[in-house]
Amino acid sequence: VDAYAPSITMLGTIPYITWYEGGWSKWADVGSNQTKDSVFVAHWDESSLSWILDPNTALDHGALNTAYKADAINPKITVIDGKVYVAFAEYFSATRKIRVVVKRLDGGSWTQIGSPIFVTGGTTENFIINVDLVNVGGVPYVAWSEFGSGVPQTNSSAWVYKFDGTAWQRVVGAVNKDLVNGNTNYVARGFCK
């Protein structure tokens, strides 16, 4: 199985990596469940000189997906207040809706942070191109680029949300300078000291 879109961060002196496997097709059968593209996280163990999977125990194969039938892609990883966070795009083919999911590693278990985020409220089919996640003063901020799937396709827009401790809140509207003619295909993080 191929691995795609790796992202890496450090928690103290321990590197953590996230990636997804599958390539938009059936990834594997886990018991009676057919899995889709799946997001994984592992950390480096210096004593064994190997990567150790940090599994989501809710799914038998350890992926961070919220369900076996969900395609999870393009993860990003960061550390916020001493905890590992991962954000990724998740697609359900039955509903044709894509959303952003954020999870945090707490004492060896993965916890979903807030509800999944739909810019359009889940009322239209939009495609999320990529996702990023950063720590802003101990607050998780997630950004992504998405476009509509109509014919013709609508222009892509960049969106930013922050977590207020209970729910994800939009940070104003789309970020694009020109919402009619502009496109934002990718977002990337920057660092300042």
Write up what this structure looks like:
The chain has 193 residues and is mostly beta strands. A hairpin with a 2-residue loop joins strand 3 and strand 4 (33-35). The model is unreliable at 182-186 (pLDDT under 50). The chain is 0% helix and 52% strand.
Structural descriptors:
globular, 193 residues, 14 strands, 4-stranded antiparallel β-sheet, mainly beta
Question: How would you describe the shape?
Answer: globular
Strand content: over 45%
Strand line-up in the sheet with most strands: 1-2-5-6
Distance between the termini: 39 Å
Mean pLDDT: 81
Give me the strand/helix succession.
Answer: EEEEEEEEEEEEEE
Spans where pLDDT lies below 50 across 5 or more residues: 182-186
How many beta-strand elements? 14
Radius of gyration: 17 Å
Helix content: under 10%
Biggest sheet, in brief? 4 strands, antiparallel
Briefly say what this structure is.
With 193 residues, the protein is mainly β.
Helix/strand layout:
Blueprint: E1 3-11, E2 14-21, E3 28-30, E4 33-35, E5 38-45, E6 50-53, E7 70-80, E8 83-92, E9 97-106, E10 109-112, E11 126-136, E12 139-148, E13 157-163, E14 168-170
Antiparallel strand pairs: 1-2, 2-5, 3-4, 5-6, 7-8, 8-9, 9-10, 11-12, 12-13, 13-14
